[in-house]
Input
Amino acid sequence: MPSDTPTDELRQRLRAEAIAPYRGLRRVFYGVFAASGLMGGFILVLKWLAGTAPSDVGWSLALQLGVVVLMVALWRWDQPRSPRSPRNAEPPKSDPAD
Output
């Protein structure tokens, strides 16, 4: 008979979702937009090499690369924060026998 109490793993997962709701969905958007920027940049470079790119290829390429940089920055900013040690923490005690 299954118990009705949530396991520790489920409890931790629910807490993480409560702290940062929709993190998974945001990561999907970051990945999709970054991939779009990479593909757009790749196509612009190929058009430029073929000589069929519009005259403002530099601005378009800068926009595509800016989207990629922004999505990578947002992805990194959205990573779970690791707990930091307090500044006034005592250093580890050495063994007096040493």
Notes: The CA atoms of residues 51 and 98 lie 73 Å apart.
